[in-house]
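Researcher: Structure prediction, please.
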Amino acid sequence: MKQLFSIFTLLCLTVGMPLQAQTAKAPVFLYAGQSNADGREYVQVYLPEYMKVGTAPYAPYAHLKYANICGAPSTRTFGSRTLAIGSRYAFCDVTNYWIDKASKDNFYAVKCAYGGTAIATGVTADKLPVWYAEATWIKTHNAYKGDDITQEAYKNNNSLTKNLTEGLASLVEGTLAAVEGGYDVKAIMWHQGESDRNAASSYYVNFKTMIEYMRQAIYEITGDEADKTLPFIFGTICHSSTQYNAQVEKAQLQVAADVPNVYYIDMSDVTLRSDNLHFDGPSTEYLGKQMYNKLVELKLVDGDPVEAVKPKADTNTDIEVEAEREWDFTKPWSTESVNQLKTDTQWAELKSWGYRYSGSWTTATELQTSTGYKFPETEGLFFRANANRATIDPGKNIGLYSTGIYLIIPKVKPGQYVTIESVTANASKERGITYDTMCEQFLDCIQGGTASYTSQKNVWWYRDTFTEPQDMTFCAINGGIFIYKIMVSDASPIAVNDIQNINAQESQRIYYTLSGTPVLYPETPGLYICEGKKFLIK
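Model: Predicted structure follows.
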C-alpha cells in the first residue's frame, strides 16, 4: 500500500497534479465605531459561559488572528486575543467566537474603535479624532496615530476613517499579502451615532459619505471589485440611552434603505449598563450573535445561525388592557394624587409645569412617586425617561419635558386610531409630538404629528395589514410639550369630510403617498393625498 501511495505521489509531482485543493482565501472582518464597538462590559461582570475556555485570561479562539489598530502608528502583524478579568470586551469578541467555531482555518479580525467619537467635526472635544470623510477635508487630514504623537506630520492626525483603512493597508503589506491562498475582506461591522446627536441633521450625508469612502479605500488596497459594495452591518442605538437621538436613528435607517449592501440590527429596546449609555453583557452578546447571524445570512461565513434572544428591558406587553381607552388630564385629580405630588421629594414644583420628576425610568413604567404610588389618572400609560423629563400639572396636563422621554401606549390593535391632544410648552417655539422611529412601519399620521406653535389634535392609524396588537411609542419634537388628552378608538376621531375612504379601483385621479410618490390606482392600505384632501384605504 505504501508503494502504491509513493507511485501516486510521484505521478502527481510529474504531471503537476495538486495533492490537495488550493487553500481558500483567508477571511478578514473589520470592526469600528465608538464606545459600544470598543466595548464597555467587564469580563468578570458578564461573559457568556461558552467563552470561558480554560482559566482566566480566557482564550476561546482556535483560529482567530487579531489586531486592534486604533491609534497604532504602524501595525503590520496580528496577534492573539484573550479575555482577562478586569478587562472589557465588545460585541466583536462574541462575533469572532462564533466565526471561530464555524472556521476550519485562520481568519483575521481588525478593530478600530474609540469611545465618544463622532462622524461630524466640531461636536466633540477638540482632542478627539473623528470619522468624517468629506472629500476635501479628508485629503488634508492624516490618519489618527494615537494621542501621544508629537511629530510635525501628525499634528492633524484626527481621521479615524484613515486610521482604519491605512491600518488595513499596513496589515496587508506586513501579513495578509503573504497568506497562502490570499485574503478576502468580508464585511465592516459598526456601532456609533451617540456622539453625533448634536449634528443629527448632517448624519445621513456624513454616514453615507463615510461608508462610501471606506469601501473605495479598501478597494484600492485589495483590487477586488466586490469591495466597492463591501457589506456594512451596524447596530442601532438603544432608545433608553441618554444619548439617543431619533433623527440620527432615522438617518441610519434611511442609509440602510438607500445604499446597497448596508444592513442594520435593531438594538432599540435592549438593556444597558447602569450608566444608561452602554450595552450591558446580555446586549453585548446579543449584538455579537446577530452580527454573526447576518454574516451567515449573507453567506460571508460558512456556518449555521445561532440562537440570539434579545435582552429586552421590562415592557408592558403582558398586561391586560381595554380595547378602547381614554385619558383626560384636564379633569380634576384626586386629593391623594395631589398630596403625593406635593410631599414627594422627587416631584419638585416647577412653576408653569406643575411638578417635575427628578429621577429617571430606564425601563417602561407607569407614572409614580419615589415611594411607588402610581397615579390612577395615568394608569395604563407607560413612560421611559432620562432624569428631569416627566411632569404633571394636576387637572391641566402631563408634560414631556424636552427630549429624552417616551410615552408608550400598550397594545394598540390593528385598525385602531390613536389621538393625542397637545400644545407646545413655549409659545415662541414650534413644537409637537410624533411617533418614535421604530413605530413608523405601523402607523399612518392622519392629522398633526408635526411641530406647531399652537395646540393641535394629532391622529395616527395603526394599519390593519398587521394582525397583532403593538405597543406604540411617542416623543416630543423640538422640545417640551403639554398633553391634554389621549384616546385609543376603533372609530376615526376625524369627521368624514376631513378624511374619506376610497375605492381605489373606481378612482381615475392621481393620489400621493405621504412621502410624495404619485399613485394612479392606490391599493396598499394607508393614507393618501388627492386634490388637497386626505383619503384612507383600509
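Model: Residues 499 and 534 are 5 Å apart (CA to CA).
Researcher: Thanks, that helps.
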